Amino acid sequence: MDWIVAPDRDGRGLPDVVPSLLGALGVDGCTDTIGFPECRSAAVLLVDGMGWELLREHAADAPYLASLLGAPPLTAGFPTTTATSITSLGTGRCAGEHGVVGYTFAEPGGGLLHPLSWSTHGTAEDAAGHRRSLLRRWPPERAQPEPTAMDRAAAAGIDVRIAVPADFHDTGLTRAALRGARFRGTHALGDLAAELLTALHADGPALCYGYHGHLDMLGHQHGPGSLPWRLQLAQVDRLVAAVAERLPASTVLAVVADHGMVGIDREQVLDADREPALREGVRLLGGEVRARHVYAEPGAREDVLAAWRETIGDRGAVLTGDQSIDEGWFGPVVTDDVRPRIGDVLAVMRESGVIRSAVEPGESSLRGQHGSLTAAEQLVPVLIAGGRG
Question: Domains in the chain, please, with CATH?
Answer without folding.
Answer: 14-263+373-386 (3.40.720.10), 266-369 (3.30.1360.180)
